[in-house]
Amino acid sequence: MKVGFVSTFGLIRALSAEAIFRKYARLGLISAEVYSAGVEDCNQSPDILFEVLSEAGFSIEGLRAKSIKEIPYNELDILITLSPEARDNCPYLQNHKRREHWPLDEVSSQARDGIKRVVKNVETHVKTMLRIQL
């Protein structure tokens, strides 16, 4: 199964979702390739996000902001959009077996408290999706 999380720049929301989904999929013995990307290019490195994810027990290994062109978009089984821009700019493909939109607020890559809220919200969405007791 291939799962993709797409936001505007592929930074805070998408990278959080990738890290969180990987952890819970692994704990649930779910074999999944997980990707994150942005519909707009971004070359930032969200260091505060990496700190927050690490402190919360999520692996940041291999996480980096990517463009939607860098992931196997056409091969995704599940597509989750995390911003209005992603929802509106990600083409609908027949081979996407499931498509969802999680409306998460945009937050500055420097706002630690905002990043923590996003991580918590994404974790709740992932647990609900995977039917993990909250």
Description of the structure:
The chain has 134 residues and is α/β, with parallel strands linked by helices. It has one domain (2-129): Rossmann fold. It has 4 helices and 4 strands, in the order E-H-E-H-E-H-E-H. A 4-stranded parallel sheet has the order 2-1-3-4. Strand 1, helix 1 and strand 2 (33-38) form a beta-alpha-beta unit. Helix 1 crosses helix 4 (112-129). The protein starts with a strand and ends in a 5-residue tail after the last helix.
Features:
134 residues; 4 helices; Rossmann fold; globular
Instruction: Give the N-terminus to C-terminus distance in angstroms.
Output: 24 Å
The top-level CATH class is Alpha Beta
- Largest β-sheet summary: 4 strands, parallel
Helix content estimate: 25-40%
Structural class: alpha/beta
Average pLDDT number: 94
Examine the coordinates and then state which fold CATH places here, giving the name of the CATH topology: Rossmann fold
The proportion of strand residues reads 5-15%
Output the helix-strand order. EHEHEHEH
| Computed Rg | 13 Å
Low-confidence stretches: none
CATH architecture: 3-Layer(aba) Sandwich
The total of helices stands at 4
Looking at CATH, the homologous superfamily is Response regulator
User: Order of strands across the widest beta sheet?
Assistant: 2-1-3-4
Number of domains: 1
What can be said about this structure in brief?
Helix content is 37%, strand content 15%. It has 134 residues and is an alpha/beta fold.
